[in-house]
Amino acid sequence: MSQTRTIEVNALARVEGEGALYVRTEGEQVAEVKLKIYEPPRFFEGFLIGRDFREAPDITARICGICPVAYQMGASQAMEQVCGVTLDPALEDLRRLIYCGEWIESHGLHVFMLHLPDFLGYPDGITMARDHPELVRNALRIKKIGNALMRLVGGREVHPVNLKVGGFYRAPTQAEVAALREDLAWGLEASAEALDFLAGLEFPDFEMDYEFVSLVHPDEYPILHGRLGSSSGIDAPVEDYDRIFTETHVIHSNALHSHLSDSGRPACLGPMARFALNRDRLTPRAAALAEKAGLGAVCRNPFKSILVRMVEIAFAFEEALRLVDAYQAPSRPAVDMTPRAGTGYGATEAPRGICYHRYTLDEAGIIRDAKIVAPTSVNQPSIEADLHGFVQAHLDLPDDQLRHRCEQAIRNYDPCISCATHFLDLTVERG
Amino acid sequence: MSDALVIGIGNPWRGDDGVGAAVVRVLAGTPGIQVAECGGEPAELMQCWAGFDRVILVDAVVTGGTPGAILRLTVDQPLPSTPRHSSHGLGLAEAVELARALGELPPGLVIYGIEPQSTDDGTGLSPAVADAVTTVAWAICKELDICRGGAEAQREK
Hints:
The complex is a heterodimer of chains A (431) and B (157). Chain A is of the alpha+beta class.
């Protein structure tokens, strides 16, 4: 009779939101892997129905405290598409600038305070800070610069209030923007140093054959624009998202799972996907740093996602510096919007990957239908596939080590469970 | 003696979570006291108190007590930290412990916690919490010996 082993973690630490892990092995085979997301659904799409289209950025910002800009931008893009409005290039640049701030603060928190303790053997960032104070001081400063960028362009760093459909309520002055320069330049150098340190960590020998999906843009490393691209050759406009991905409900998760409709395979979104599909469009310094850190053309080791995130922090600093140096206050802070009926689509690269929005408006601009897909929900099957693959390859590890590695395998994705659980349909059956 | 710093922590858009800000607004302009408002993010907090030896933090603290109840804490011992389901916002206890780990905790740090009644959306304090604002402001003045210091400063003029 074969021996049954179970690895369970009832409340995952250092991830955002409420989730658990269950792995069962039978003899030499992994029989079952579940990333259980029990955080209750949050019904954001339901809240949006019946609201004015101009309210969407302020409502969707509340989906996440760490990546509100992703939700605000995706919602705004969709509304602008319905209304047939194109933003002035200067306003697009300002959106890219605040989004750099979001990448910096979100990635900065994850790399140093949530992910790095796994590699250095500490239970949390606070304990790690006792032995590595300089590293943590720099990490806090990196995150703080990201926050400052969010605050300047967005009015405040959590749930920014200065972003609207069509642009901004107020554009910062040239002097206000220029004041960030010194910190951004420091951040780029600090990122280079941090990447040197991170490249020296020990990584488990583990690779997965991912289907990477990200936005792909011919001229830039994608943040706000691009077509849907994948490592197997998907090349489609954002409007095809619902055709490319199929969402399903699984019993053990309050967040819908997604698979690629054609192959039925899980998709991997986020830093590794962006890097694999857009590496040659990184800014020069970030590209050189990736090379130096030993990242080849593609990184398929999920534990090395910490390196890719660090490269993206350097990229965000470098890109922000470029935008700050070129900044001139736009001639108007926003484009006027007149509502019309129709369906619009938006997709941007949140720190954790593509964040997709679709809205249908009536002729008065009232939202009649809404769909939002957070990257973490798409990544759930990919996380489970990693866990399956990792446990299968490391059955020789004792339970406690295996459990620790499994938790780390989940944190490789910087999952935001709170973001992921806002779209479960509630059906009440009455007898 | 150099000025003391009183930092009000919390979100004034969430009802009684604005009590920290309310206390520092009462204390603003008091001789010997400098005030600041801060969201409580660790790096921001550390930058805020850098250079001050005497720092007092004021925040809403949920202990299950009566609304408006006042709790005074020193940080000789690690602060109790409740299990959290959020990695994306560090609480005050985490911020203090992180500062301790980095050797950036002000030597005379004191925390005043006020039990909130409601932290729902919207501005304004509930009556019990509003009553605690002056009590805490007065306690801070006494603790910092500001009354006598202020009077002496007046005499010297």
